[in-house]
Amino acid sequence: MSEDSAxxxxxxxxxxxxAGVVHSIRxxxxxxxxxxxxxxxxxxxxxxxxTLVGGDGGYLxxxxxxxxxxxxxxxxxxxxxxxSDEWTRELVSTARIAPSHWRKMAGWVAHQTRFPKAxxxxxxx
Length: 125
Description:
Layout: H1 3-13, H2 19-31, E1 36-42, E2 48-54, E3 60-65, H3 68-77, E4 81-84, H4 89-94, H5 99-106, H6 121-124
Parallel strand pairs: 1-4
Antiparallel strand pairs: 1-2, 2-3
């Protein structure tokens, strides 16, 4: 096979979507009622964050892939997943954070019984 034909084959097939990422996003979409919206956000050398907002509950989820082309390949591979170019007012207003995520973000403060008390305790109950 010559270099030209190998390069043409690579260009036409494009990047492949990582199977683990596709599988986890399909599970997420099915848990969220069969639809979700993705926002693709470049995060520097780390790659591209695929932030997900579920259609049914609006819970947030995310995965990180190597580059924009791989992120687009993941979106194309998942049925029920649409892409938003940016965070719109409607999308932000439907997004919800799971109580377990609040605890994870709070870190050691979430488990304190004395000062400093977790400021998001109303959200956790």
